[in-house]
Design goal:
The protein has helices spanning 16-26, 60-70, 95-103, 106-119, 123-133, 142-148, 152-164, 169-177, 182-195, 199-208, 220-226, 229-233, 240-254, 269-280, 287-301, 314-328, 331-340, 343-356, 365-368. It has 19 helices and no strands. Helix 7 runs antiparallel to helix 8 and helix 15 packs across helix 17 (331-340). Residues 24-57 are annotated as: Disordered.
Length: 371
């Protein structure tokens, strides 16, 4: 297949890759605004045809299109741009699509995948291009894959899986993890944990892996385990970024039942909780630190889970609650949360966690108790 360049006429839609590249150039160190939405093929991207209720056969129709395409020696990749219209294109690695890629000439498959990722004005064709690149381990494809991966809500799972298999993939996954949010962050951080993080990646995971989104609950426990949080937080020379992220991570694990590993199923929880509250007692007060600690204390003081174990024996659990509440009862900590939270958020917090645990956030002793 010749590697001819296809030039789009003026006014025609830009490719998904070019769209990601342009948005990334505006702020290279942060996630794309709104995750890159709206995508340039928005109105032209029609509904998908659910070809089978059985997920094991999901990619069969896409694989059939690829088999027919690669069966024609002179067919160009551009002929695939609209070939998947209406099909239920898998957005995760699919063994039928992978098998179709392995049945064809490897060099041609690679060239087709690269062309589709770089030039497709249709998100389904770009996803198939990523899937065609997934079985190979060519490091030269890393910049291409990580750039389209910035559109992570759509391409995150395939991009993360493809990067995990390549030399230099760990560095690329870390680069991408620093620039994605939402569901994309879930897939990329999970892949980074699976890859086996380098010391640089581990340092980032321990301080920045959880951004506070509710979806962090899917990977918070895995992050804590992979990054050896229990070792890092029990050191005497910890920094504020590590302590703050530990508080955020523990708060997420306190409320992520049904999503991922909870405090009750995290074996080092007692050690990590004790180390966190000890470090917290020496930190300067802030609204964020207060809320994280109050939610953790509320969880520890609440009803025990009916199954799944417990994060500490009763006596140790009660001692942890007392230690957290002792910090939060300090006047300077109450002042920090009053000054640092939006009034509506503060009112919600007082009516929930604070009132339930007798935390005198507003200084209204008659209403909220003496704590």
């Amino acid at each position: 297949m010749s590697a001819r360049t296809v030039t789009r006429p003026p006014g025609s839609p830009i490719s998904l890759y070019e769209h990601a590249l342009r948005l990334h150039a505006q702020d290279p160190d942060r996630p794309l605004p709104r995750g890159g939405r709206p995508l340039p093929d928005g109105e032209r991207h029609g509904p998908r045809l659910r070809t089978s209720a059985d997920p094991r056969t999901r990619g069969v129709h896409v694989a059939a299109v690829l088999d027919a395409h690669f069966g024609r020696p002179r067919a160009h990749a551009s002929e695939l741009v609209d070939a998947f219209h209406g099909l239920d294109v898998p957005l995760h690695p699919d063994h039928h699509v992978t098998a179709a890629a392995l049945r064809a000439d490897r060099a041609r498959v690679r060239q087709t995948g690269r062309w589709l990722v770089r030039n497709s004005t249709n998100r389904d064709a770009a996803a198939v291009g990523l899937a065609l690149l997934e079985p190979d381990g060519h490091e030269e494809d890393v910049p291409l894959i990580r750039t389209i991966g910035l559109l992570s809500d759509h391409f995150g799972p395939l991009a993360a899986h493809a990067l995990r298999r390549r030399p230099g993939g760990g560095e690329a996954l870390l680069w991408l993890a620093q620039r994605v949010a939402g569901w994309g962050r879930v897939h990329v951080v999970e892949a980074l944990c699976e890859h086996g993080p380098s010391p640089t990646a581990r340092a980032w995971l321990l301080r920045h892996g959880c951004d506070g989104d509710v979806l962090n609950g899917y990977f918070a426990g895995r992050l804590a385990t992979t990054a050896h949080l229990h070792e890092a937080i029990t050191r005497p020379d910890v920094d504020d970024a590590l302590i703050d992220h530990t508080g955020r991570l523990l708060r997420i694990m306190a409320g992520c039942a049904g999503m991922g590993m909870t405090l009750e199923s995290y074996p080092p929880a007692p050690v990590v909780l004790a180390a966190h509250v000890a470090h917290l007692s020496r930190q300067a007060p802030s609204a964020g630190r207060y809320v994280d600690a109050a939610v953790i204390a509320d969880h520890l003081a609440g009803e025990r889970p009916t199954r799944g174990g417990d994060c500490a024996p009763d006596e140790r659990r009660a001692a942890l609650v007392r230690d957290y509440l002792a910090v939060l009862a300090r006047p300077e900590w109450r002042a920090a949360v009053r000054a640092g939270l939006d009034p509506d958020v503060l009112a919600w917090f007082v009516e929930g966690v604070a009132t339930r645990r007798g935390l005198d956030v507003l200084g209204d002793v008659e209403r909220h108790g003496e704590g």
